[in-house]
Amino acid sequence: MTPTFLSTGARTCSASPPALIPCALACALLLTSPAMAAEDPPSTAHTLPEVVVTAVHDASPAHVVADPRQPRQPVPASDAADYLKTIPGFSAIRSGGSNGDPVFRGQFGSRLPLLTNGTLMLGACPGRMDAPSSYISPETFDTLTLVKGPQTVIWGPGNSAGLVRFDREQPDFSEGGVHFSASLLGASAGRNDQTAELAAGSERMYLRATANHSHSQDYADGQGRRVPSAWDKWNTDVAVGLTPDAHTLMELSAGTGNGQARYGGRGMDGTQFRRDSLGLRLKKDHLTPWLTRLEAQLYRNRADHVMDNFTLRTPPATGMMAGGMASNVGRTTTGGRLAATLQPAPDLSLVTGLDFSLSPHEARRGTPAMPYADQPWKGDAKFDNLGVFAEAAWQARPDTRWVSGLRLDHSQAWRYPTSNSGMGKMGMPASADDNHRTRSALPSGFVRWERTLQPGTTAYVGLGHVQRFPDYWELISPGNSAAASGNAFATLQPEKTTQIDAGMNWKGQDWQLWSSAYVGRVQDYILFDYPGMGSSVRNVNAQTAGFELGGSRRLSAAWTLQGTLAYSWGRNTTDQRPLPQMPPLEARLGLDYAQGPWSTGVLWRLVAAQRRTALGQGNVVGRDLGPSAGFGVFSLHADYRVNQRLKLSFGIDNVFDKTYAEHLNLAGNAGFGYPGGVRINEPGRTLWLRADVKF
């Protein structure tokens, strides 16, 4: 059984970099392991073992593949950002108990697109209260794929930090016509989750339905102080597929969801997270000897989000928001994709095609006395993109593979100064030409060399370049279009990232190791300044670098040692200071025991202090609040498979009930009694129990 890697969640013992030495030594010990029995090189179809997942490791060159259905520690995720934190290099900006915003290698937002079944779901909140990750329930998907760095061009524009895909696969009915799976979770702070999936069909058609619900009350930190963080959310999705033959798929899908969440780090709470999705996809394989696949897809995803300061909290008695205020924002993203896979020679394949998206944004406001639902919608922005791409893979020799791609995008943005959405549009020019931005032929491309050095050992080096058109949050929200904020709509330039990615994977009979590293240069990096109450945005030049590494060593038939280490570094070369919102050095060390139906494990997460900060700078969600202390967290879990249909998992996160806060964090909101500039603490000791059934 291949071991997994680890991550833990829990609280502070003011550890500093020296506290990371045990993990570094463990990784060094793993790296000195001699080569052992040969194994096949890793593939993208990597299958994780049936144990509690505590961190996800690299599956193949430049890729990470995971099963988001597996029980995980910390307590199983309520959204995509929470799950992604188990992958080394990821962190998240927390503002409450759920709906965080994922950060990979210190990069955030549209630098890291999140796709679900190949479609783009964009949030509507000007401050990303409803980040795309908040609409994703990981456990309802079959696979998670991460492409590190700008190393693909076939899944849309702008993926300078990487690309994340959550996908549902075509059901397999070779072992029966009806499949059912479900999970139940109970945890501290009133946490309870329910997930179910039913698939029924034959070799000619199928019906698949998934549903989930997640609820939690406010959690308490290590000192027992309540943190406003409660949430309640649900999702339902249905897909009907026709498979007239083994090489053809036609699928129609629809889904909806909603929820609410309290945010200790914001002036408003999220009282509606309505999602409505509709999609159609067609796939045909083996059309001719040289045309191996043809894919077509259309989709429509709408986010209808409400935020207010009176439903889940007491509104202030004085000030601009006295008595209560509500904002209803909506965003509808319509898109499509057409791609053909060609194989002109046995050792050469090519994926080429085009994709497009259209995404208007609208808003309306209200108060308890004048409900927003009685107000008309007013559009304030619209974005669209059309891209063409080609990506080729050439097996130059049995042990050498070259992968390269090129992409060109035509991007446009409109703003509407007449909107009453309250987004700070004062001072906009009235000319229609001044309210339309267009950029043609934004190029992106990469070339990657992959080599099997010996059986079980692979290496890769890739060079990528991405030109990313500014997104809604950078061009328009919050108030960036206003003349007093620098009129970012007219002045902001596309971000240009050039990056080298490299890595190696080693496998032996009783051990495996992996490493990845990157060095990048960013011209016209988009940076947010927070000089006072508001914000402004501008272009600077930057440099980035970092690494992720991990390994596992089977000590005996039952015991396995594992560890990971991740570090991200960035510098604003225009201002000669660090880039903001960079996560600190983080190590994870674990020891697992598996025998028969039982498996148990202990996890130790160590995070160094972060001294490289840029006070008052950041992104649309968070800004650097100054240096942060290091911490160490100890957690444990156990797993028991009762039979082939039932599995029980149990965990204790933050066993010693420490008090700590992550470096990437929102300051607590004064409406909940937080003093200014104080980070939100993470949960204290958390107990959880989960049951998984499958028929």
Structure description:
It is a single chain. With 695 residues, this protein is mainly beta. The protein has helices at 21-31, 80-84, 472-475, 488-491, and strands at 63-66, 90-93, 101-104, 107-108, 114-116, 119-120, 143-148, 162-167, 178-187, 191-201, 205-216, 219-220, 226-227, 231-242, 248-261, 269-285, 291-308, 326-345, 348-366, 378-397, 400-415, 436-454, 457-468, 495-507, 511-529, 536-554, 559-572, 577-578, 586-595, 598-607, 617-618, 631-641, 646-653, 686-694. The protein has a single domain, classed as Maltoporin, Chain A, CATH 2.40.170. It is built from four helices and 34 strands. Strand 26 (536-554) and strand 27 (559-572) form a beta hairpin. It is globular. The relative contact order is 0.17. Mean pLDDT is 88; it is low at 1-49 and 419-430.
Structural class of the helices, strands and pairings?
mainly beta
CATH superfamily: TonB-dependent receptor, beta-barrel domain
What is the terminal-to-terminal distance?
23 Å
CATH architecture: Beta Barrel
Shape: globular
Helical content class: under 10%
Tell me about the biggest sheet?
22 strands, antiparallel, barrel
Radius of gyration: 24 Å
Query: Count of helical segments?
Result: 4
> Which stretches are low in confidence, meaning pLDDT under 50 for 5 or more residues running?
1-49, 419-430
Average pLDDT taken over every residue: 88
Beta-strand content bin: over 45%
Number of domains: 1
The beta-strand count equals 34
